[in-house]
Amino acid sequence: MYVQKRPGVDAFLRSMNAIFEIVIYTASISKYALPLIEKLDPFNMATHKLFRSHCTLSANSFIKDLSLLGRDLSKVIIVDNSPTSYSFQPDNAIPIPTWIGDTSDTMLTKISPILEMLSTVPDVRIFIKKIVRNTAYCGSYQKILEQLNSEIVKKKLNAVGYKPPHHKVIGRTTTLTQSATTPKLGLSETAKMKIETEQAQISCRVAPIHIKINSII
């Protein structure tokens, strides 16, 4: 059997395997899909394989119902080319264009940093709903990545009680004044805040979860 892989899929699986528990979820029947999956994932990095029998039939479509995984949905992300497939949980989905053999395709490379960044947030659905599903960023993975980074940094700064200083503009001169509610930052605290801001831009690895899903396999 000859299988043509989407460019970057091997590196994608390796990098995601270090961060997430990988589950291959397809609407194809197992008899057809299993031989393809063996070629796609020869090192068995996907811990579970789910097929049409694990989908929910709704309005003549096979839906990949993520609630059946037995996982905390605040930590679950589905990457799929069909909005119908994830229609039950759209706030858990990262859409990706259909691949039809283009050898110059770079979509997996583009979404990797987005997934890595989402692995650091407490609830992926909040960020996906606000940013990924926002039509202002639709189709631009770079804009999604930039906005995600901005939101994550903002939340981390808010979590430590940081408030930016107020700006006063006098003529052509701009001065900064300390907010009455904002504690003055010593040099060490300022340096610490800078480090935390930079760290927010670095992907953090989280341990994969291990929950049996034998009941649906």
Order of secondary-structure elements? HEHEEEEEHHHEEH
Low-confidence stretches: 166-187, 194-217
Distance between the termini: 26 Å
Mass-distribution shape: globular
The largest beta-sheet arranges its strands as: 1-2
Strand content: 5-15%
Sheet with the most strands, sense and barrel status:
2 strands, parallel
Q: State the helical fraction.
A: 25-40%
Number of helices: 6
Q: Rg to the nearest angstrom? A: 21 Å
Q: What structural class do the secondary elements suggest?
A: alpha/beta
Global mean pLDDT: 78
Description:
The chain has 217 residues and is of the alpha/beta class. Helices cover 34% and strands 14% of the residues. The chain has helices at 9-17, 30-40, 107-118, 124-132, 141-159, 187-199; strands at residues 22-25, 46-50, 56-58, 61-63, 78-80, 93-95, 166-170, 173-177. The chain has a two-stranded parallel sheet. It has a two-stranded antiparallel sheet with strand order 3-4. A hairpin with a 2-residue loop joins β3 and β4. α3 packs parallel to α5. It is globular and about 55 Å long. Residues 166-187 and 194-217 have low confidence and may be disordered.
List keywords for this structure.
single chain, 217 residues, alpha/beta, two-stranded antiparallel sheet, 6 helices, 34% helix, disordered C terminus
